[in-house]
Amino acid sequence: MAGLQTYSYPGIGEWAKETMSYSQAIRVENRIVCEPTPCGRPRLEQVYRVTTYSTDLKATHDHVVRNYRRWMPGHQPTWTEVGVKELGLDTMHFEIEVEALDPEGAAVAAAAAKVEGKA
């Protein structure tokens, strides 16, 4: 799809891109969609949607709530909590998918695309 920018971080991100053919984050205009690890770029108050996947909801639910309150006090994005039998690797037990608005980053990306002749 034209206009999408994908990102894979050094280490596990590059490994996942090569081994499993997926990116850790993708920019769609002024939105950033991140999985399975949190994105470093958006500020937490820009996050509007979170989906968590856990192989043990009882073990992770309270941890997620506690971290929401710690890291996003006064900000309450939507949250879908999904229990799953297993995730992509045997060592994976918890996964987070985040969507965030990033209008400032979208403007920077658009300007860079113009310079590179992609827009």
From TrEMBL:
Annotated protein name in UniProt: Putative l-psp endoribonuclease family protein
